[in-house]
Amino acid sequence: EAITVSELANRMATRSSDVVKVLMKMGVMATVTQTLDADTAELVVQEFGHRVRRVSESDVELGIEGVTDDDTDLKPRAPVVTVMGHVDHGKTSLLDAMRATDVAGGEAGGITQHIGAYQVETPAGNRITFIDTPGHEAFTSMRARGASVTDVVVLVVAADDGVMPQTIEAIRHAKAANAPIIVAINKSDKPGANPNKVRQELLQHDIVVEDMGGDTQDVQVSALKRTGLDKLEEAITLQAEILDLRANPDRSAEGSVIESRLDRGRGPVATVLVQKGTLRTGDIVVAGTEWGRVRAMLDDKGRQIKEAGPSMPVELLGLGAVPGAGEPVVVVENETRAREISEFRQRKLKEKQAAGLSAARGTLDQMLARIQAGAQKEVAVLIKADVQGSAEALQATVQKLDHEEVKVRVLIAGVGQITESDIQLAKASDAVIVAFNVRATSQAREMAQRDGVDIRYYSIIYQVSDDIEQLVKGKIAPKH
Ligand code: GDP
What we know:
Elements: E1 3-4, H1 5-11, H2 16-25, E2 35-36, H3 38-47, E3 75-76, E4 80-85, H4 91-99, E5 117-121, E6 127-131, H5 136-144, E7 152-158, H6 165-176, E8 181-186, H7 195-203, E9 218-220, H8 229-243, E10 246-247, E11 254-263, E12 267-276, E13 279-280, E14 284-287, E15 290-298, E16 304-305, E17 307-308, E18 313-319, E19 328-332, H9 335-355, H10 363-372, E20 378-385, H11 388-399, E21 407-415, H12 420-429, E22 431-436, H13 442-451, E23 455-458, H14 461-476
Helix pairs in contact: 1-2, 5-12, 10-14, 11-14, 12-13
The structure holds guanosine-5'-diphosphate.
Guanosine-5'-diphosphate binds near residues 87, 91, 222 and 224.
Subcellular location: Cytoplasm
Keywords: Cytoplasm, GTP-binding, Initiation factor, Nucleotide-binding, Protein biosynthesis
Family: Belongs to the TRAFAC class translation factor GTPase superfamily. Classic translation factor GTPase family. IF-2 subfamily.
């Protein structure tokens, strides 16, 4: 139930014997197969000059070996969809309209509850989970906390308005998250609707719809008249099949907090999206820094349920306090363990807060350390330049540094000053920002400092490639 010496050595790409030596210096006599608790493991990792990277909830931090699922245990699960797009293009209306397509909705007498996510069963018998908070802010802040819940992004574009600034932002965020996009051309009932203009405009942002020879599905809908919704559901289901979304329902549950609040009558309430396994009443869960026994669960129709499988959103009652949105949720074996993890995390959180702004610097070094620890197989870069030509040249240069073991991923190669949106994106993707002959706005600078995002200023291209190459090399030659 804790990490072994050899596994820890493996993760740091170092020899087990070296780990044993370090442990001896710390006064711990250990063999290669011995298990270490989370605190000890962390000390060892620091001793090697690495920073601890929480790879997953069942990792070093928890001291639980991740439950690895056999391929044969995986069953198809519903896709989880986030709706994004420009303000007033109909995101909320579309979410309401999709919700009304649920065939299971009325029959059990449940009343619609807005819990942050809902699931529909389509007339064709497929299930789709929608995150009820539209827009890229929630999406990105969840990602920044390490939660990746969205499988598919539905990009809403009003047919009478076309591609607008937030449409472009949404595309960037979806692409950075590697989430496939389905375009919903909305308001097609309006007299001024021009779906072809929308498709044309999307081309400029590397979204090529099927009609134009690309592989992005697009569907004309009217959220108001409720037309085209079945086609949109079909498109989502098809995308889910392509993605081959599966999870093992027969294991202890893991998920993410979608929303949370303190209810006067019921105490702390959290909406949890189950991502793996099955969550049951009576389970002991840790959610971020909080823990508790699941006292009751309610679905999006306000009905009491006893268990929830993969892709199901549920309202969970029984936590000791309110966890943050985007925090990971995991079922543990007993209360002692839950308390231990919760206390550990609270202590870490306090330390982090105490460290405060000092954490902001040296983030390039941190990235290097993580790469050396073998936790990161990709270097994400966000490029902003003064002119398009430079942005393109930089992108090409940086991408050439791609190595078979470590991928260099350019999230954006754009023009203009660095904005808060860039910082958000960089933070969510753990990216370093390359500022080429451009500056950051003062708000963006503040945000970067607070969030520990590294902005590097350059005016010479080869200096950029030197720096990025250093990051890549850190991964290729981790041997001691
Ligand atoms: P959001 O800001 O993207 O969430 O947009 P809303 O869902 O709030 O919609 C903005 C406005 O557009 C509202 O007045 C809606 O009634 C209207 N609207 C949304 N969808 C449609 C549609 O399909 N057709 C028409 N004609 N109006 C729509």
